[in-house]
Each structure stands twice: as C-alpha cells, then as structure tokens.
Amino acid sequence: xxxxxxxxxxxxxxxxxxxxxxxxxxxxxxxxxxxxxxxxxxxxxxxxxxxxxxxxxxxxxxxxxxxxxxxxxxxxxxxxxxxxxxxxxxxxxxxxxxxxxxxxxxxxxxxxxxxxxxxxxxxxxxxxxxxxxxxxxxxxxxxxxxxxxxxxxxxxxxxxxxxxxxxxxxxxxxxxxxxxxxxxxx
Length: 186
What we know:
The chain is built from six helices and ten strands. It is α+β, with helices and mostly antiparallel strands and 186 residues long.
C-alpha cells in the first residue's frame, strides 16, 4: 500500500461491533510500512482534565481548563496521555508533526501551558491510542472494517462528540447507517 492514511479520519463501519471501536472516528497520526497509530475522537473518558492535573501534580490550573473533557484515544497505553492540537509557533518537548496544521504531543510542558490557558488554541486530550501492527490496518481496510475520509478541523475541534461519527461520513456524502461490510464484496 503506497497511499498512507496520515492526517485522515477512519470511520468505523456500522458492522464493527468491537466495544473499543463501535461507531468511532479515529484521527490517523501515523501510518507507514511498519504499522499505524491514531486516536479516537468521539469516545469520552469518565473524567475531566482536572483529574489529570491532580494526578500529575498541576495545582494552578484555571477553572476553564479543569472542566475540559478527556477522551478515550484507544486501548493501547490507556494510562498515557496524548494531546492532539493545532500546530502553532509554540514548541513542546515531545511533539510529532502530523501535518502542517495538526501535531501530537505527549509531554508535561503542554499540559502545564493548557492549565494556565497558554497552550494551543485548539486541542483534544486523550488517554491511550489505537494502534495497528504491520499490515493489520491494510487488511482491515480490505475487509471493509473502516471507511477513510479527508481530515476536517471542524470534526476534530467543533462538532459535538455525539455527532462526529455521522458528520465524518457526511464529508463524502455517505449516510453511514446504510453501509455494510459487504459493500464491494460479491
């Protein structure tokens, strides 16, 4: 496969019943010959950012930042935090640039800045990530487990969580409820 899915959305097909991925939208951060990594965008974790700040000893957080939601990014390293954010002129200790507009950071300095309302303008905090071994995602794509669509910042940062799955599919004019895993297999 030469067309990698970096900086795209993966949308779970309606027939995917696995609890961690049922009706999810995943932002793809990295996809290459060795495997893939993405974060789920529409599954809230049962805590707020205030809980994360407390766990890591940040006690000067603004009330606004403390109330931000935390997302379940996937089942891999679910105890580890990842911040998906707009790329800005600021640099962080541990960031990878996914595209010209989106970065993924996992260092404490960005959390400290977010706590002071000095972090990126747009961001999403996840616990864990979704990962695929070499060839695994490609096979799942061939099996019609996922639909991929182009990235749209409004889906990532502005669309209500409960609408992200449907809205992401609407980016290509598809009513996701009418699709099945049998499409394309005769």
